[in-house]
Amino acid sequence: MQLDSLYQEIILDHYRTPHHAGLADPYDVEVHHVNPSCGDEVTLRVELDGDTVKGVTHDSVGCSISQAATSVMSDLVIGKPVSEGMATYEKFLELMQGRGNVEPDEEVLEDGVAFAGVAQFPARVKCALLGWSAWRDATAQALATQGAANEGVKNA
Ligand code: ZN
């Protein structure tokens, strides 16, 4: 019970003061993702430096879970290789799909462990995953654009 209230406090902190909120320039790709079941929306920008996540900024509207999860996600991926960010997403997804039976790995998920309780509410899992799906989409597009640009250089 004590742990639950600690987790709640972490989520509320990120909700009240979201990290990396406010869309910033420059960026490579901007996406807009919606979670219609709850009404959450996120606009997210990604900037890559090679295969490193240089920047992620977002403008989020919706419930505290979705906004806090997007804040935590941006902390977890910025400055990391894309592959590491994707691996962290896999861990978070595993936690979210675990229905409360997966022990969160704090080394990897940091403040993301606070969402462990959300896994028991399948309707809210989409809220917690919204920012992650926006980041994965934007990053995949940014990598594809890089690939196309490299092709162009090769063919020139
Ligand atoms: Zn929501």
Automatic annotation (TrEMBL):
Domain NIF system FeS cluster assembly NifU N-terminal: 7-127
CDD domains for the chain: IscU_like
First and last residue of the signal peptide: none
Superkingdom: Bacteria
InterPro entries: NIF_FeS_clus_asmbl_NifU_N
Pfam families referenced in this protein's UniProt entry, alphabetically: NifU_N
Name of the featured protein: Nitrogen fixation NifU-like protein
